[in-house]
Amino acid sequence: MKLCSIASGSSGNCIYVGNETTNLIVDAGISGKRIENGLSELEVSAAQLDGILVTHEHLDHVKGLGVMTRRYGLPIYATRGTIEALMRTKDMAATPEQLLHEIKPDEPFKLKDVEVHPIHISHDAADPVAYRFSADGKSVAVMTDLGMYDDYILRSLRGVSALLLEANHDVNMLQVGKYPYYLKQRILSERGHLSNDTAGRLTLDLLGQGDELRTVLLGHLSHENNYEELAYETVRSEIKLQGGKAVPEGFTLMVASRERRSECVSA
Ligand SMILES: [Zn+2]
Ligand SMILES: [Zn+2]
User: Fold this and answer.
1) What gap in Å lies between CA 99 and CA 47, rounded to an integer?
2) Domain range list for the chain
3) 3-state DSSP call for residue 70?
4) Calpha distance 30→143 (Å, rounded)
5) C-alpha of residue 184 to centroid of ligand 2, in Å
């Protein structure tokens, strides 16, 4: 299975997951044109997609959803709360009902050869989820937009080979930055976003659960309160410091760019 970020960040998210038979995207938070271009770089045409899995209704995850659905008639998978929130928007209100597929956290379903497992996450949206994908005995997951993690999240990610994980902000940059107080509190809350430090601890916890995890691709970086080197170094030092040992052999940490497509991770 392949995991590849077409765009990841607070200004737009679209992640490709697929294998020889199945092509999926998680979120469509950039323009239709950028999604088409990103897919064509992967030698996938948008018409070939087997579905769009939506994590939640925030604009940075759905900006291109209406366009993609109208242009290609692609099926949308989302929780009831997310579907209801989407249907209240002008862009999505006229979406044909047969394209909307309701999913539930912890009720896995199959799209062709890939099993999709929605995971409940804590975020200030109607009913947000992250996704884990399994095929050919391997799993990858896309986990962004969550204010905290707990044992349930760790259990849900156990055994994944590759993970796109939110590292949204540096806590100090956020605290001294220019965002208004209420917004800082929102981001830092349990229904906000994962900081670099927390992403580091989560990675360390996952590495402690077993040796399947080979790649973590940090994503959903904030434009205002983070930058690529800082996210990378913070997570890397967290793994080293807390674990008291070097980063495990064969483990790769990468950062997904906000603007450019990431390298593809194979699992
Ligand atoms: Zn969000
Ligand atoms: Zn987001």
Assistant:
1) 14
2) 2-266
3) helix
4) 18
5) 15
**H runs (alpha helix) in 88-212:** 151-157, 171-176, 181-188, 196-209
- Owner of token pair 């990675």: 203
Predicted TM-score (pTM) of the model is 0.96
The domain 2-266 belongs to what CATH superfamily?
Answer: Ribonuclease Z/Hydroxyacylglutathione hydrolase-like (3.60.15.10)
Q: Which helix (H) or strand (E) holds 130?
A: strand 129-135
In the chain the first and final C-alpha atoms are separated, in Å, by 5
**Residue 113 structure tokens:** 């050869």
pLDDT of residue 242: 66
pLDDT digits (tens, 9 = 90+) for 219-266: 999 999 999 999 999 999 998 866 666 677 789 999 998 888 999 999
Å from CA of 253 to ligand 1 middle: 23
- Residue among 241, 140, 151 nearest 202 (CA): 151
pLDDT in tens, 141-167: 999 999 999 999 999 999 999 999 999
User: Which residue shows structure tokens 């998210």?
Assistant: 13
The closest ligand to the CA of 58 turns out to be 1
Helices (H) and strands (E) in the chain, counts: 9, 14
Neighbours of ion ligand 2 (CB under 5 A): 60, 145
Residue 223: nearest ligand to its CA?
2
